[in-house]
Amino acid sequence: MIGRIDNSLSALPALGAAGVSNGQPSGRIGASVEPNAGQSDQKGNTTGDPTLTESEEQEVQRLNRRDQEVRAHERAHMAAGAGVVQGGASFTFTRGPDGKMYAVGGEVKIDTSTENDPDRTIRKMQQVKRAALAPAEPSGTDRSVAARAGQIEAQARQEKVKQENAEQKEDQNSLQDAGSLPVATARRPYQNEMTGQALNIMA
């Protein structure tokens, strides 16, 4: 899931539930929850009836595969999102026919706030995109996060170009101001210095 992508360059619409950590804009990326999955805060170790039917055994195998997929998905987000991931992954669990709890969904909180400097914002959004698309099979939400980060990155690049153009124009104006000084005024210090050197040589 993804929360709000908020930025100072251009406000973007919220995607999913908003997440806020320490007052900073944040979102959530991760594996989507399977339909009809139960929820639990902790993974349990309880066991049910050891005698399972064939269909129950198949269900346990399916849940076990799903559990591994979800955990690998979130690990990929966290490994690629160093610097933008906030905290660890959180999971949604369901109880299988064997009484054990299996992860069927997960999410990772990610910092999507912009920086004061366009270059830093660009680097940060590139990191967000890497984190969102890190899993072998990114979810639709993951791809949406990457697309939004790309929009913010593009806006930051435009802001950077504007700043560079403004700085270049300012430099040009400074050069023009210096070139508009009278020739005699501009050359006088140089001429005085050379005259002094000539007098010293002849002395």
From TrEMBL:
Polar residues bias: start-end ranges: 37-53, 192-203
InterPro entries attached to this UniProt entry: SprA-related (IPR021973)
One Pfam entry name: SprA-related
Highest taxon listed in the record's lineage: Bacteria
Region (Disordered) location: 16-88, 131-203
Signal peptide residues on this chain, from the entry's feature table: none
Compositional bias annotation for Basic and acidic residues: 59-77, 156-172
Comp. bias regions, Low complexity: 79-88
Protein name (record): SprA-related family protein
Species annotation: Desulfosarcina widdelii
